[in-house]
């Protein structure tokens, strides 16, 4: 499997190392292409990493930040991944970054996905860096195993850059970057913490049928760098 494990003793040590690795990739992208594209995940895990990355000495005005996925909730909601990024990443030195949200105040999640897809497709893809998370059900981005369209989402070779997802286990409709956009990134990191997530990932890598996280690892052109630490 196309995977590299990086194990840390604490979430703090992980956050330092992950922020340094991501900053290194972004800096190389700015040097090579005069700009860098970063997609970060939401949920509860990335806060400390985001805090550390926000202080990285980068040419942040040349960095565009977006999200791997978003909940279909307004940016004021505590469930909003954009709110998480604004509060923990887009500050300090990273306040100068350009942020491209996935959410818009559209009538429904399908329309919001179409609007987000046109914003993402206008970027100079591929992404330089995507930092994924994973739930204990094996979902990554908003590729939920129980979504009605999960087979199509995981198998997609092209199509819109952002897709709507309806899942019974997600609390709200979702917007997610597509499989081609995620798996085509120049660098792919997977940030997970805790023995439960490590066990889920190990099981996903060993068993068929594949959970979404395994499908992403199999499709990704570059090795997925897994950053893991026990829970703090
Ligand atoms: O809902 C989501 O869940 C996953 C994992 O979140 P966590 O709270 O277990 O860290 C996250 O990667 C994704 O971006 C988010 O929308």
UniProtKB/TrEMBL annotation:
Presence of keyword Transmembrane helix: no
Keyword set, alphabetical order: Hydrolase
Ranges of residues in domain Glucosamine/galactosamine-6-phosphate isomerase: 10-219
EC number(s) given by UniProt: 3.1.1.31
InterPro entries: 6-phosphogluconolactonase_DevB, 6PGL, Glc/Gal-6P_isomerase, NagB/RpiA_transferase-like
Pfam family, one: Glucosamine_iso
GO molecular function: 6-phosphogluconolactonase activity
Involved pathway(s): Carbohydrate degradation; pentose phosphate pathway; D-ribulose 5-phosphate from D-glucose 6-phosphate (oxidative stage): step 2/3
Catalytic activity from the UniProt record: 6-phospho-D-glucono-1,5-lactone + H2O = 6-phospho-D-gluconate + H(+)
Coiled-coil region(s): none
Tagged with keyword Coiled coil: no
Family per similarity comment: Belongs to the glucosamine/galactosamine-6-phosphate isomerase family. 6-phosphogluconolactonase subfamily.
Function: Hydrolysis of 6-phosphogluconolactone to 6-phosphogluconate.
Name of the protein in its database record: 6-phosphogluconolactonase
Organism, scientific name: Chelativorans composti
Native organism taxonomy: Bacteria, Pseudomonadati, Pseudomonadota, Alphaproteobacteria, Hyphomicrobiales
Gene name tied to this protein: pgl
């Amino acid at each position: 499997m196309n995977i590299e494990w990086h194990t840390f003793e604490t979430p703090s040590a992980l956050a330092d190392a992950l922020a340094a690795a991501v900053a290194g990739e972004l800096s190389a992208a700015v040097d090579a292409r005069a700009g860098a594209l970063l997609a970060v995940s939401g949920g509860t895990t990335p806060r400390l990493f985001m805090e550390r990355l926000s202080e990285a000495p980068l040419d942040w005005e040349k960095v565009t930040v977006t999200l791997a996925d978003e909940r279909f909730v307004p940016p004021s909601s505590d469930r909003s991944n954009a709110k998480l990024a604004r509060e923990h990443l887009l500050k300090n030195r990273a306040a100068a970054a350009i942020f491209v949200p996935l959410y818009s105040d559209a009538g429904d999640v399908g329309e919001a996905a179409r609007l987000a897809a046109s914003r993402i497709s206008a970027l100079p893809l591929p992404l330089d860096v995507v930092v994924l998370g994973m739930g204990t059900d094996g979902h990554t981005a908003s590729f939920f195993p129980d979504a009605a369209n999960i087979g199509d989402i995981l198998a997609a070779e092209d199509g819109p850059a952002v897709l709507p997802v309806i899942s019974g286990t997600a609390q709200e409709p979702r917007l997610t970057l597509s499989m081609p956009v995620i798996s085509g990134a120049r660098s792919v990191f997977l940030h997970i913490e805790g023995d439960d997530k490590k066990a889920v990932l190990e099981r996903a890598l060993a068993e068929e049928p594949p959970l979404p996280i395994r499908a992403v690892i199999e499709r990704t052109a570059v090795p997925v760098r897994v950053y893991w630490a026990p829970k703090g």
